[in-house]
Amino acid sequence: MKPIRNISPDEALSRLQNLCSAQEKCSSEAKEKLRKWNIEEALWENIIAKLEKDKFIDDQRFAGYFVRDKQRIYKWGREKIRYALIKKGLAKEIIEEALASLPKENFEAALRDLLSKKSRELAKYESYEKKNRLIRFAIQRGFDFDLIFRIVDDFVKKPND
Q1: Per the domain annotation, does 127 fall within a domain?
Q2: pTM for this structure?
Q3: Is 138 domain-assigned?
Q4: Structural domain containing residue 84
């Protein structure tokens, strides 16, 4: 592991500009970099403000991309996405607005796709055990309970069927 070396605030700003132009970052990630580079905390706000002013960092834009990517690519549920954004230190309003931008149908389609694949893997189990495993799987993926319970029965074969 490379030792952390002190860099100047101007060099830190330049590095963050390069980093943020290559990949979407939020302000808390930029602060974490500044902490690793041993930049004085008193200078953090000026550096972050400059990045925001120049549109290198925008927490709202970051949240929008994050929500869309995690839902579309990784098929995460609403709760898992919300928790990940809270861990990133984003404001509750930004998180809720980003989550509201996605149609509920996207989450339902993603859950149906995931449960369909998982159901085939669990074919050897009895319906009660299969249902429990599907529910736990969907909860781990961060889907809402009401959505899970509404959909999971479609993938469990009843014993008298």
Answers
A1: yes
A2: 0.87
A3: yes
A4: 59-100
